[in-house]
Design brief:
single chain; 201 residues; alpha+beta; binds 2-acetamido-2-deoxy-beta-D-glucopyranose; binds calcium ion; lectin; transmembrane
């Protein structure tokens, strides 16, 4: 009888202790859940009031803190920056006129190569592949013209030796060829193209 009594007491005390511990755990979890809810609510409120604008407005700040990372705009990573201009190197091949239209659709123009520095930049980037540039003699045979009106006769050129040769009397559009050197070819030839545009403001 004595033995039973002791056991009962010990067991009872144990159970009490266990229940107390459970209760304190429950309190901690409850507090955690409440603070989590509070944070979610605060975030939702600030979102609806527009104080957390940086999440959706990254592209609104091309000239502020993001400029050094994305000078051509964070929304257009396929454009590469060089010397205050942005360049696009196409992944698709098409005729000169289609390429010209494609650039215009992207608010740009076929590239004008008017300096050695620029030639170096595109040359490195095009890696021996053929790319259209904004140079043509379609209007008058032998009278080459840059599409933006840059004066051809007084500016930089980089023709391959023996080019432009107007082969078959039908080569009126210029592209970059081996080692980035220029060649005239028939305008319906399909190759890649380079567009350029000013840095977005
Ligand atoms: C003329 O240019 C074309 C490329 O447009 C080239 O294939 C051809 O060999 C050139 N002809 C001469 C005689 O250099
Ligand atoms: Ca020609
Ligand atoms: Ca040629």
């Amino acid at each position: 009888k004595e033995y039973f009594h002791i056991c009962f007491c010990v067991c009872f005390k144990d159970r009490n202790f266990f229940q107390q511990k459970l209760r304190s755990f429950f309190t901690v979890y409850l507090l955690l859940a409440l603070s989590f809810l509070l944070i979610i609510t605060l975030f939702a409120v600030s979102l609806s009031r527009g104080t957390v604008t940086s999440l959706k407005g990254l592209s609104d700040f091309p000239h502020s803190f993001l400029f050094p990372v994305f000078p051509c705009g964070p929304g257009s990573r396929e454009w590469e920056y060089f010397d205050r201009k942005c360049y696009y190197f196409s992944l698709r091949r098409m005729s000169w006129h289609k390429a010209k239209a494609q650039c215009e659709e992207m608010h740009s123009q076929l590239a004008i190569i008017d300096s050695h520095a620029k030639q170096n930049f595109v040359m490195f980037r095009t890696r021996n592949e053929r790319f259209w540039i904004g140079l043509t003699d379609e209007n008058l045979e032998g009278e080459w013209e840059w599409i933006d009106g840059t004066d051809y006769k007084t500016t930089f050129t980089f023709w391959k030796e023996g080019e432009p040769n107007n082969s078959g009397s039908n080569e009126n559009c210029a592209h970059l060829w081996n080692f980035g050197q220029w060649n005239d070819v028939y305008c319906t030839y399909e190759c890649y193209y380079i567009c350029e545009k000013p840095v977005p403001t």
